[in-house]
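User: structure tokens for this one?
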Amino acid sequence: MPIQVRIPAPLRKLTNEQEIVTTEGASIADVLANLNAAHPGLFERICDENGNVRRFVNIFVNDEDIRFQQEKATPVKEGDEISIVPAIAGG
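Assistant:
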């Protein structure tokens, strides 16, 4: 069973409007690289020019924010659900 990645609405144009895509990888970094190979342009929307997750993008593995884990080195396994969530600004 591959890893499921939930894609936010603003990025779905890069995934042919798919809300959930599947991929493989041992870490978030692997998952992002594989996603970008399958859906070119996705990585640069999620990560900055240094390859770090952008400040306004949150990534969760099974509801746990990777910023409180090991960032892009956070391990993932088959059956995990990853959510990419753009931060919402407001006031």
